[in-house]
Amino acid sequence: DADDDCVRILDEEMARGPFTGVLHCFTGSRALALHAVAHGLYISFSGILTFKKSDELRAIAAELPADRILVETDAPFLAPGPHRGKRNEPAFVTETAKVLADVRGENVATIAQQTTANFLNLFAKIKSADIRDQLHAIYAGDRFWPEPLLQINPNYMAGPTVADLAQSNELHPL
Question: Phi and psi (nearest 5°) for 141?
C-alpha cells in the first residue's frame, strides 16, 4: 500500500543528490522494484521469496538485473520455506538463494557469486578478502557453510585474519 509513497520519497531524495541503498526484505510491487533499480538501488530478497504464495515476488526477482539483487535472512524472522515457523538464522539464506537461482534459470553458484559481488559493490568499504575471512571465521567447520561460495573461490582463506582486521580497525561491524 505504500509503494506510491516510496516512489515519491525516492524521487524527492534522489533530487537532492544521488545515493545508493537497498530495499530490504522486498515485498513491494514490480513498479517499485523497477523504479528503485532505475535509481541505482539494490533489491534484497528474504525467505518470503520461498513462500508458496509468493509467485508475484518470484516473478519480480526473475526480471530484475543481476547486478541489483541481494539475498538476506532478516533473522530471526521470515525463515525460508523448508524452515518456516522456526527461528531464522543466517545459514538459511542458502534456501532463498536456491529459489532465486531457480526462478532466474541459473545455478546456485552463479547466484552466490553475483549476490556476493553486489554486496561488495554496495558496501564498497569492505574488501573482498576481508569478507571471505569473516565468513570463514563464522562458518569454518560448520555444517552451514554455503558450499557454492567455496566453489567460487577455493582460496577464500587468503588475506588477513579476522583478528588482524579487529586490531587494524579497518573493518567495522555492519
Answer: 75, 0
